[in-house]
Every structure is written in structure tokens, then in C-alpha cells.
Amino acid sequence: MTIAAVSEAFVLCSKAGADPEKVYQAIRGGLAGSVILDAKVPMMIERNFKPGGKISINHKDIKNVMATAHSIDVPMPLTSQLFEIMQYLKVDGHFDEDHAGIVQYFEKLAGVEVKKVNA
């Protein structure tokens, strides 16, 4: 879920014309900083989706979470949306990529890529 939120934010900054590397450096030391931010934003910017944590594994885990939640009548609206994002990435050929590749879903929606800005 955190990777999806970071993905969405960096697609926004890229579409707005901001340099994602500069945005990352500006926010990483403050309250917005996190292990996820430090681990995944550089991968997004470098377009490095070599698997560490695969989307396919997250997809399986979330499917199991959803089944458990539904069996005990717990609604999971955000988790179900994330599951559908991963389902899209599966269909689009990104299933065996690192979960930093979640950014590609948001990029496709916005028609922009999060990447290095040439100086």
C-alpha cells in the first residue's frame, strides 16, 4: 500500500514537471521519509524493476488477506483496490517484476514516466 502511495505521488511530481530525484531528496529527511521511500524511489527513477520483492508474491499474499477478511466479514476497500492494481500489472506483463514496478500502473494512467531528468 505504501509503495502504491509513493508511486502515485511520484507520478504526480513527474507529470507536473518536477525532477523526481530532487523531490525525493527534498522529502526523504522529513516526516515523509521512510524505508519504502529510500528503497523504492531510486529503483523507480532508474527504471530498475529487477525483482527483490515480486509483484506476484504480493498479489498472492493480498489474495489470501482478502479471502481471510471476507470470511470474517471485514471490508477491505483499499486492499482490494491494490489487489486490482496488481491484477492489472499481471495482465500487462509486469507480474515478475519488483513491487517498485507498481509505479507503472500509475504512469500508464497519467501518461508519464518517473525517471531521471536530463540536466
Note down, in words, how this protein is organized.
The chain is an all-alpha fold. Helices cover 62% and strands 0% of the residues. It has six helices and no strands. It has helices spanning 2-15, 20-27, 35-46, 55-71, 77-91, 103-110. The longest helix has 17 residues, at 55-71.
Q: What would you say about this model in short?
A:
The chain is an all-alpha fold and 119 residues long.
Question: Which short descriptors sum up this protein?
Answer:
119 residues, mainly alpha, 6 helices, 62% helix, 0% strand, globular
Draw up the topology in text.
Blueprint: H1 2-15, H2 20-27, H3 35-46, H4 55-71, H5 77-91, H6 103-110
Helix pairs in contact: 1-3, 1-6, 4-5
Beta-strand percent range: under 5%
Oligomer: single chain
Termini distance?
32 Å
The rounded Rg comes to 15 Å
Secondary-structure element series? HHHHHH
The tally of beta strands, per DSSP, is: 0
Number of helices: 6
Largest sheet, in brief, is: none
- Which segments are poorly predicted (pLDDT under 50) over 5 or more consecutive residues? none
Query: How would you classify the helix and strand content by structural class?
Result: mainly alpha
Share of residues in helices: 55-70%
What's the overall geometry? globular
Overall pLDDT: 95
